[in-house]
Design brief:
The complex is a heterodimer. Chain A is α/β, with parallel strands linked by helices. Chain A has 19 helices and 28 strands. Chain B has a three-stranded antiparallel sheet with strand order 2-3-5. A two-stranded antiparallel sheet of chain B has the order 1-4.
């Protein structure tokens, strides 16, 4: 391992590390635009200049391009290096427009930060700025090419990292242009990462266009709820409106990026049709009253139809905290059934996959990226869990073979099509991984694992907390709702964040729904109690590999200020709770309901 | 002789008082009499318009960020012509300390301070000014500046026709 000295600090790093990374490892920041940990170096921006005082190379060098060598002495503060970096910033600003006040990147812009850090304030160049014509890139991404500083990050990400083919670089010299050959929506399901990766405002999030500034954001570390991968995100909210979602780095899970589904599915939280007030028999009321009404109604149903006439129904999209409380609620009310799934098929498949993955053979996204042999077995990762396809592509870029068993499935990498698992040379691979979903024939994989001890499995579940819910299902012997309703004994359903088909609710005399989505159960229910969405609460999801990940509260629940007042102003009156802000996390409602039932059975109420 | 110095001190004080009786008073009988403050006096805040009549404010949020008492709030929005403007803009003058940091922070010269300091009311909620209360029909102190002419992204003029811009690049051109 070569040793070098950076700003008088001795550093020892692995062979092949660049001087920039070596400096970062001892917390010496070196400005950079084109270099990115996930994309590597390009040497395009010239802003990471350092001076080499001693060693095999001397003078001003680009720290991102230079691998460390024994005996290097590096100075980041040498006047010559500082002057070079300042000059680079100044020439990058020569063509940059004067539009920070109307740019959505303002406040979270790397170019802005480094311009200020470099001390460039007054324009000395008297020539004119080059301009470009923008392109329409679809409803999600805004294009403003005048701001471009030619770092090539976007095209390196889009083509090399994500495997997109419809976006590239055109022109030469001062005319370099990043865009599509013709206007149109970006085709890659990872195109939203251009927003994160652009060091300035060429690509900005169109769904959050002109909405807020970085310093006003409500932000917290969160987990994506849109598939079972559990990619780490940072949702951004302002004035009780979820504006956008950006990727949060987690090396073991999603690394630096997220897919477009996770990034652009924010409107569901701001939906005006969301249940915001508690409703008892079509009458709006407070949450506490609704819970008491629900407790009384549970007793009524039991008296009327006998014990065991109520089914408690959860789902695999509810947070783990609520899923754990559900069996307790079912126990307290002596429920006839506890359900986490609608159909028997779904129940059996989920439990079987859980059994398979519980054996410690589960592969994380990082395992997939580091694998040398990947089998896509009867699933469509690009649609079911896009980041899994991205991980497979990274493995393929590093030299892994990708085998595909299945019809009509496209992947962002080269694949070898096979007809059966026997055709795949699993024994020759060092770190083989099979990517499958719940519809897989588990016995087959079970048998395969016996003969291949190093085989890992990435099993894609249908929802964010399917793994956690399935664990509760297995421990408590929960059955599917279909089975529970088969004998007609169930006369009441308490649906907690459950997606029950409307047909199954027909003929059930009593339905109560605790949900934040306008699900079918909410439409049919006599008692509705609003719960909070994942961004409005603390909780945790267990992802497809059994990794429990916490998410934090990003914003307070309530109707967004936008559209609240017909005159367009936010209200002038004061109140303690925001309109529609009474919603509570499902686990909190369940805990209160359990306590009410306990107090009642002990004669305390 | 302590007594003599004491008398001298008393007489000096009396002399100064007596002398001032014949000077012009510096106080005025407000509100019957009024004094016009200097143009750069920092009182009631206004939002100005550019020389072409458009709203100068682009709701960039710099004034609300600079405000030490958090009395400015706004919501930016996009107009049909691509201009960024304030959907609503609110200054709570009950909280404002008239420090002028907002006017200093404003990159488009939209927010300016006027010498009108007489804004007391009986109801404190009347001091919450909305955009229509703040917006004036004029340029205020700088009559020539239009931010969008210099911004370099083309909103008030076609792209590449701004003050310091070259015409848009032809990416497919083969000339060097």
């Amino acid at each position: 391992m070569p040793k070098l000295i950076i700003d008088d600090i001795p550093v020892e790093v692995a062979e092949g590390t660049t001087v920039l990374e070596a400096a970062q490892s001892v917390d010496i920041p070196i400005p950079h635009f084109c270099w990115h940990p996930a994309l590597g170096k390009a040497g395009a921006c010239r802003v990471c200049a350092v001076k080499m005082l001693e060693g095999p190379v001397k003078g001003i060098q680009m720290s991102c391009m230079l691998p460390v060598q024994e005996g290097m002495v590096v100075s980041t503060t040498d006047p010559e290096a500082v002057a070079m970096r300042r000059a680079v910033i100044e020439w990058l600003m020569i063509n940059h427009p004067h539009d920070c006040p109307v740019c959505d990147e303002g406040g979270e812009c790397q170019l802005q930060d480094f311009t200020i850090a470099g001390g460039h304030g007054i324009r000395r160049y008297s020539g004119k700025k080059r301009t470009h014509v923008n392109q329409y890139l679809g409803p999600y991404i805004e294009h403003e090419m005048n701001r471009c500083i030619q770092c090539y990050r976007c095209v390196r990400f889009y083509q090399e990292y994500a495997g997109g083919t419809d976006f590239g670089v055109m022109g030469s010299a001062g005319r370099v242009y990043f865009g599509r050959f013709q206007e149109g929506q970006l085709e890659s399901p990872f195109s939203g990462n251009l927003v994160d990766i652009c060091p300035t405002g060429v690509f900005t999030d169109k769904t959050a266009r002109f909405r807020a500034r970085y310093w006003d954001y409500d932000m917290a570390p969160s987990v994506c709820p849109h598939c079972s991968l559990g990619c780490n995100t940072t949702p951004v909210a302002r004035y009780r409106e979820l504006l956008k979602t950006v990727a949060r780095r987690n090396e073991a899970v999603n690394d630096w990026f997220i897919c477009d589904r996770g990034r652009f599915s924010n409107s569901v939280v701001n939906d005006p049709l969301r249940p915001r007030r508690a409703v008892v028999d079509s009458r709006e009321t407070g949450v506490a009253e609704a819970l008491e009404a629900l407790q009384l109604r549970i007793r009524d149903i039991e008296e009327q139809y006998g014990p065991g006439s109520i089914a408690v129904v959860g789902s695999s999209r509810m947070a783990q905290e609520a899923a754990e409380l559900l069996p307790q609620l079912a126990h307290r009310i002596g429920a006839g059934a506890l359900c986490f799934s609608t159909t028997r098929k779904e129940q059996v498949e989920t439990l079987a996959l859980l059994e398979l993955l519980s054996a410690g053979r589960s592969a994380s996204q990082q395992d997939v990226r580091n694998s040398d042999c990947i089998v896509i077995y009867g699933c469509d990762p690009l649609n079911e869990a896009p980041m899994m396809a991205m991980a497979a592509r990274q493995a393929w870029r590093a030299g892994a073979k990708v085998y595909l068993i299945g019809q009509g499935i496209s992947l962002p990498c080269e694949v070898t099509e096979c007809t059966a698992l026997e055709d795949v040379p699993l024994a020759e691979a060092e770190r083989p991984i099979i990517i499958c979903n719940v519809s897989v024939r588990v016995e087959l994989l079970d048998k395969l694992q016996e003969s291949h001890s190093h085989l890992k499995i990435a099993g894609l579940f249908p929802a964010a907390n399917s793994f956690g819910a399935a664990q509760v299902m297995r421990e408590t012997g929960a059955i599917s709702l279909e089975e529970a309703l088969a004998d007609g004994e169930i006369k009441g359903i308490i649906a907690i964040e459950a997606d029950i088909p409307a047909a199954l609710l027909d003929g059930i005399p009593f339905v109560a729904a605790l949900d934040w989505l306008a699900a079918a159960a909410v439409q049919a229910a006599q008692i509705v109690i609003p719960t909070t969405a994942w961004v409005e609460m603390d909780g945790s999801y267990i992802n497809y590999e059994g990794r429990a990940q916490q998410f934090s509260k990003v914003m307070n629940p309530g109707v967004p200020i936008k559209g609240l007042d017909p005159n367009g102003h936010p209200p002038h009156s004061h109140r303690t709770v925001a309109p529609g802000g009474e919603a509570l996390p499902a686990w909190q409602l369940l805990a209160t309901l359990i306590k009410l039932l306990d107090d009642d059975s002990r004669g305390l109420s | 002789m302590k007594i003599l110095s004491d008398i001298a001190a008393l007489l000096t004080g009396m002399w100064i008082t007596w002398k001032h009786m014949f000077r012009r008073p510096v106080t005025i009988q407000y509100p019957e009499e009024k004094r016009q403050p200097y143009p750069r006096y920092r009182a009631r805040i206004v939002l100005t318009r550019d020389p072409d009549g458009g709203e100068r404010c682009v709701a960039c949020q710099l004034c609300s960020a600079a405000c030490p008492v958090d009395c400015i709030s706004m919501q930016p929005t996009e107009d049909t012509d691509g201009r960024r403007s304030a959907e609503w803009f609110r200054i709570n003058f009950a909280r404002c300390i008239f420090c002028g940091l907002c006017a200093e922070a404003c990159p488009t010269l939209a927010i300016q301070m006027t010498p009108d300091f007489e804004i007391c009311t009986r109801d404190i909620m009347d001091l919450v000014y909305e955009k229509e209360d703040l917006l004036i029909d004029g340029c205020g102190k700088s009559s020539h500046y239009n931010f969008y002419r210099h911004a370099g992204i083309g909103v008030t003029q076609p792209r590449g026709n701004g003050a310091e811009e070259l015409p848009p690049v032809d990416v497919r051109g083969l000339l060097p």
